[in-house]
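During the second year of the project, the team shifted from modelling isolated chains to modelling whole assemblies. The rationale, set out in the original proposal, was that interfaces cannot be judged from single-chain predictions alone. As a representative example for this report, we include one of the complexes processed in the last quarter. Its constituent sequences, exactly as entered into the pipeline, are reproduced here:
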Amino acid sequence: DSGVTQTPKHLITATGQRVTLRCSPRSGDLSVYWYQQSLDQGLQFLIQYYNGEERAKGNILERFSAQQFPDLHSELNLSSLELGDSALYFCASSGTGRGARGYGYTFGSGTRLTVV
Amino acid sequence: TQLLEQSPQFLSIQEGENLTVYCNSSSVFSSLQWYRQEPGEGPVLLVTVVTGGEVKKLKRLTFQFGDARKDSSLHITAAQPGDTGLYLCAGGRNVNTGFQKLVFGTGTRLLVSP
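Output from the structure prediction step:
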């Protein structure tokens, strides 16, 4: 157990639907990161939150959104789902993201999303 | 856009062999990390290097950060079946908000057979 909890572990949904993925960071970590992993694109950075505020954005589609709540848990919302959105979605956390060189990420076990 | 290229993409070897995985980029990174990922799990951090030329050893694994901080290598001595997995390098890049984000490499899938 890495200390980062992601739910659900598996999700199967139809095209056009909307889903919410949840992440609880490791205790004490303020930064949460969302990544998408697919076979052809590898691990792609989506978005980062630090203590409730968005801090960095990657290749996140407009159909996707995220937020970090006061208790530091985060949710990734995926809407108008397409077949190509099928992937593993990982959440990671770290103690700090502010200019700290060399800090490591702790990853959760991921949510496998299948869009049919 | 994939900024970090890893080679080889796939590697299948016998137990006891040595191997090296390379991670290359045209960009400079402030830090370089290596992760191992097993099926159904998230990546697990193995090591972080932050200084150009830095070498770190973790039992049979040796990690090196290039002098120019653009590349890195992972060398495994006497590989064991337990080393099987997906190895990912990740470079730290500063973003204009004063934060860093990690950019992951393309990955090297290693299979060590008994």
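Chain B is about 0% helix and 55% strand. The two ends of chain B are 37 Å apart (CA to CA).
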